[in-house]
Amino acid sequence: AISTTRKSRSRKKPREEGPVAEGQLYIDIEAEKEVLSACLNLPEAACEAACLLRAEDFGRASHRQVFAAIASLEAERKDVDAVTVADRMSQQGTLERAGGRPMLAELASCSFALLAWRRAAEIMERHVREARSR
């Protein structure tokens, strides 16, 4: 079921810059995990992260695939959680390549991320800006 609070929230405009050139992006895997975990557990995190980041901003291929599913669900204003992301990734043919349901369960279980995800997203966004300025 779609929560009523999701439909009433205003959305920020997503970034419009192009992707960072291959090899230019500093990869912070822990920050990526924190952002993805928060997105899988907190509706507001998925909404905010979809405005701050793009799939291309993630250094690990499996993380790009997970975030692409999260962003597509968020764009459709559908609930984002481990079950809906797994379903979307399965439809896209990316679930097993990314590590399957066990990988999503591992990401969703990172409880520290629920406290620090905004800082992790800011770190990732800063790395993208720095890579673009090179």
Give a summary of the structure in a few sentences.
With 134 residues, the chain is mainly α.
Care to describe what's here?
With 134 residues, the chain is mainly α. The chain has helices spanning 4-8, 29-41, 43-52, 61-75, 82-92, 95-98, 100-108, 113-133. The chain is globular, with a radius of gyration of 14 Å. The N and C termini lie far apart (45 Å).
Shape: globular
Tally of strands: 0
User: Distance between termini?
Assistant: 45 Å
Beta-strand residue percentage = under 5%
What value does the Rg take, in angstroms? 14 Å
Order of helices and strands: HHHHHHHH
In DSSP terms (H or I, runs of 4 or more residues), the helix count works out at: 8
Oligomerization state of this entry? Answer: single chain
Provide the helix percentage.
55-70%
Poorly predicted parts? 1-22
Report the sheet with the most strands, covering strand number, pairing sense and barrel closure.
none
**Which class of secondary structure composition applies to the elements?**
mainly alpha
List the helices and strands and how they pair.
Elements: H1 4-8, H2 29-41, H3 43-52, H4 61-75, H5 82-92, H6 95-98, H7 100-108, H8 113-133
Helix pairs in contact: 2-3, 2-4, 2-8, 3-4, 4-5
